[in-house]
Amino acid sequence: MRVITAVGALFAFIELLYMVMVLAGANAGNGFFIFIQALAKPLALFWPGLFPVSDPNLAVILDYGLAAAFWVILAGVIARFAAR
To answer: Domain residue spans in the chain?
Structure first.
């Protein structure tokens, strides 16, 4: 159970870290940024572009914030079923 919850929290953390880095204007050429981006984009699954908005900052918040919430909720549901 704890492992499942930890993996979900790790995925959510990666999404949130990427979101904060983009919103803060991190250097897109930096190696750490590229590494986090390479992890965050596939983990976002189907969320990017689901809600088309004109504000790029709001788009990042929706795309990666919803993906982070998704991972936390999914890990919680799976952990509850595994505990039974």
So the answer is: 1-83
